[in-house]
Structure formats: structure tokens, C-alpha cells
Amino acid sequence: MTTFRHAAPLLLAIALAAPAHAQPQQVKPPVSTYGVDVGTRMTTIPGMPAGGMGAMAGMMMPAGVGAPQKELWLGLRSSQRAAGTPEAQHAIPPGMAMGPSLPLVGRAPTRPGQVEDDHETAPEKPKARMLVYWGCGETIRPGQPKIADTEKMSLAEFGEALAGRSPPERWSAQRNAQLVWPNEREKTPVPANARLAGEQLVRGNATPDIKFTIGDKQDFMAPMEVTATGAIEGPVALSWAPIATAQGYFIQAMGFRQNQGEMIIWTSSELQDTGWGLMTWLPNDFRQRMIGEKVIFGPAVTSCTIPRGIFTGVEGAMVNGIAYGEELNLAHPPRPADPKVAWEPVWAVKLRVKSVGMTPLGMDAGGDRGEARRSDDRAPPGGAAPAAASKPANPADDAAEALKGLRKLLPF
Questions:
Q1: Integer CA distances (angstroms), 297 to 8, 90, 242, 270, 288, in order
Q2: I need a surface site. Which of 66, 204, 302, 403 has the fewest CB within 10 A?
């Protein structure tokens, strides 16, 4: 009893003080949240004539074919009540070469049942058979592939076979933006020589002024140019030029084997992952964790090999690569260091950067893929090659034919 009596005053003091120290900092949501997505897209077709599309001139070409394409998306959400129709302007640096500002206007009305989304998501369960491989090297690793077969598996088993990682959902400006660019009024493409680095100012009747600076790390990234060397049966050596501002890389390849109705997926991850949730912007901390787990490459890695046999017999295959930039998060005023002081930000900005590239597999420069296809696939019984096989390979024809075969695999 004596021990408790002397300890009681101290215990009471600790109990009274604990709530004060444990109380979290009061944080109010910002009046305005602003999202800036900065992208570079590049599609490389081996053998495609420089400066012209040749035989592909009449085709519907995906963005970024033959030359890098810069992409920008701006989205503003604000709780400030506007006087009249909400509107805003984003004053841009002269280096953008797009005039003094970009208009932010309301989104076009969505159709009934249409869902807005700001990033890639894994597709719904398809009615197909899918083979999943992962890891760099010349030979397929033990235990692969994981097979997802809709006719033989439960939903739980199917989901396990198509397991993948995705960044956490932390930001709603992209998903719930009220004013955006590009929009119905302004769809001007970003010039090839545009530079976003510099002073930025967002001003309008629907938001407090948002003034911030974009540095070189968050400017448009250099193109992700992936080179694939070797026959499509593999092993296929992949390489890419290092990008100075890249914080990491990830590679995904896909193909379709028509005679067996199989979709084939391979990724550069050391762990099983289809890659669908990783071919997008990644938050800085999530990206670092994925590098630590060897799911994505660190910035020093610039090569990888697709193992032999993965894409044997496919109708067409392509490789997608992504370079992750460093995400920028800003708020005004900054968060007080003293947890007793409430934080009431006026605005918050999130800027995300990436560079993506793609190229067909099994096409060496000079039309090797086309020549192999003519000699192997078109030879009549008895081994005699048709007369057309002696025709010199045309790189433009081979590139056009390869792209036609990949249309069903293209993500855009």
C-alpha cells in the first residue's frame, strides 16, 4: 500500500499528460488540390524509315510512333465557390511554346454508367487461357508459368495466378478534378520541344492562386527507347538508354499464341507479377519499396533478357517499358513542425512523371524477322521456297506487318 501511495501522484501526472502528447495534429483539407501528370511516349519499330512512315503512312498509328510524344494533363479541384461559371488559367513558362497559359475548363458530362479513372487497372477476368512468366535470364525459371484458365479455375485461383502489385490510392485530384486541361475547348498537342520547368501559376475564380516551381527532375523525361535483339523464340536481349531523371524501370512483354488461344505475359520482376498495376505513375515511397523487393529495377539497370521459349509460336509480341520519374508534392503553407499547431493548407499540388516505350519482339534491324517468316512459314511441302522468298526484304513492309499483328495487343 505504501508503494502505491507514493507512486499514485506520478501515475496521475503521466495519465493527464499522455493525451496532450498523443493528440494528433489537426489537419484540414486544402481549399484546392491540383494534379499535374507529365508523360513521354515512344514506340520504336525496327527498320522504320527515318523521317517518314513509308508503307505505314496509311495506317492508324498509335501515339509516339517513330518520334517521342510529350503528354500533359492538368486537373483542379476546389471547394472555393466561384462567381459565375468556374474557370481558371495555368500560366506556363515560355519554354512550353504553347502561349502564355492553358485554359482549365469543366469536364464534359459523363455518360450514364461511365466511370472516371486516372490510371491503368488490371482487366476483368477474360474468357481465355493466360500464361504468366517473370524474371530476367536465358532460361525459364522452375515453377513457371503460372497458368490462369477461366474454364478450369475458381475466381480465387484465377486471381492468384494473375497476382500483381499496385500503388495505394492516395490522391483524388486526378479522379475528381472539376476543371481540366486538355478539354473540349483546348486540345492543342504538346510540342516536341516543350519544356515545363519554370514558374507556374494557376489563377481563376474557382481557386486561390496556386504558385509553384517545377525543376528539371519533374520536366518531361527523355524517351524510353527499348531495343529487343534476337529471334522471338528467345532468348531476347533487351536494353535501353539510361534516362538521367529516371528513378527506376520496369519491363513487361505480351504475346498471343493463336493456335492454343493463349495470352502470354512476362515481366522483369524477380517476384511473380503481371505488371498491370506497375505500368503507371508510382509514389516515391512505394517505388522505393518495389526496388527493395526487386519487383522493379533501380535507376542503374539498363538491360534484361527474356528467357528462351516464352514466346515460341506467338502471332505477335511486344515489349513495354516504363521509366519512373520522381513525384513532387507541395503544399502552401507548409506543414507546421509543432504538432500543437493546426495545419490549414490553402492548396496542395501533386506532380507525377513517367516515360513509356514499346517495341515489337523478334524484329532485328534490317528485316530479319520478315526474312525468317518468309523462309519458315511460307515454304511449301518438300522444302522448296516460293519465288517470293527471293524478294529482298523491305524494312518498311516488315514494320507495317508487325504492327498490324500487334494491334490487338496495343494498350492505346
A1: 57, 35, 12, 10, 10
A2: 302
Residues 6+ apart with CB under 8 A from 287: 247, 248, 296, 324
C-alpha cell at 411: 494498350
Q: Tell me the percentage of the chain whose pLDDT exceeds 70.
A: 71
CA–CA separation, 253 and 361 (whole Å)? 9
Residue type present at position 107: R
**Helix 368-377 vs helix 395-406: angle between axes, to the nearest 10 degrees?**
80
Q: How far apart are CA 355 and CA 275, in angstroms?
A: 16
Q: Is 347:332 a contact under the CB 8 Å cutoff?
A: yes
Q: Which residues contact 60 (CB under 8 A, 6 or more apart)?
A: none
Between 155 and 386, residue with greater pLDDT: 155
Amino acid at 380: P
| pLDDT exceeds cutoff 80 at 355 | yes
Tally of CB atoms within 10 A around 207: 26
Helix (H) or strand (E) holding 18: helix 2-22
Whole-prediction pTM value?
0.78
- State pLDDT tens for residues 96-119: 999 999 999 997 665 555 555 555
- pLDDT of 374 higher than 60: no
Question: Which one has a higher pLDDT value, 215 or 16?
Answer: 215
Over residues 379-395, the mean pLDDT reads 41
Hey, is 94 helix, strand or coil? helix
| Beta carbons of 135 and 268 less than 8 angstroms apart | yes
Tens of pLDDT, residue by residue over 41-68, are 999 887 655 444 443 444 444 554 668 9
Cis check: omega of the bond before 145, within 30 degrees of 0: yes
Kindly state the cell numbers that stand for 104.
Answer: 482549365
**Helix/strand/coil percentages in the chain, nearest 5:** 20, 30, 50
Output the nine-digit C-alpha cell for 122: 488490371
Give yes or no for residue 89 having a pLDDT over 80.
Answer: yes
Cα separation, 123 vs 133, whole angstroms:
18
Segment 272-298 shows an average pLDDT of 96
N- to C-terminal Cα distance for the chain?
77
Report the pLDDT value the prediction gives residue 171, as an integer from 0 to 100. 63
* E runs forming strands in 236-346: 236-240, 248-257, 262-267, 303-306, 316-324, 328-332
Q: Where are the beta strands (DSSP E) in 294-383?
A: 303-306, 316-324, 328-332, 347-360
Q: Which of 220, 230, 229, 169 is nearest to 197 (CA)?
A: 220
